[in-house]
Amino acid sequence: MVTQPKIVHLNWVYKFLRDGENGIEYEEVEGIQIGVNEYGYWQYPFKTVLKVGDRIETIEKDENNQVITSYFYVEHIDDKGQVAFNQKGELDNSDITIRKFNSFPKPIAVFMVVPDYNNANHGIASILVNQIVFEISKNSQLYTENQSTYRRVIFHLDEAGNMPPIPNLSQKVNVSLSRGLRFNFFVQAFSQFKDKYGDAYDAIMDACQNKVYIMATQEQTLKDFSAMIGSQQITVHSRSGEAGAIKSSITENQEERPLLRPDELARLQEGETVVVRNLKRQDKNEIK
Question: Are residues 161 and 117 in the same domain?
Answer without folding.
Answer: yes
